[in-house]
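Repro:
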Amino acid sequence: MKDMEKKQEYFRGVSVIKITFITFIIGLIFGLMFFFVKGVRAEDNETKKVVLKEWTTQLLYDTTNACYEGTIRWIVMTHPSLIGQMPGLASQRQMIVHCFCVMDRIRKEIKIEEYQKLVYDQERVGTLFTTKAVECIKEEKTLPSFFGKQTIETDNSTIVPNGETEDSKVESPDQKQEESEESPQTIFQG
């Protein structure tokens, strides 16, 4: 009984209004502290955009990684048997060298200010990367383990990287055997 009386004595004179007021004051203090520490800035999306004057290392790294991921998707789409397999070191190297080629071509042809605007249009930037990727495969012979003897089809044209035409691609059983020994699946596994 004495415990109950002590509790009643302690809370005597405390009303719901006082508790609400104290809670409000404490919340206000924490709120003001948050705004002072965090800072309140009124900016729109336009002021956050930074116009680059050159290709920064961060932009090159991010864009090359995006190219690499796209290259993996492209390879898996053309070789579905590779789904779920981790690329081996030789495959990873071929893909990164391919993306270096793509990035070099984009950097030579497009100014950074134009690229910054283009990057927000997924369709246009996708077309740009696909075009440059096909150019690299055709002209620089990148990704030979994946597209060395295959036809690469895009929306605009059919490209055979080794300079062959569709009519000249008659293969003997021996050629097919050699290809299967150096198949993308083997190189993808490492």
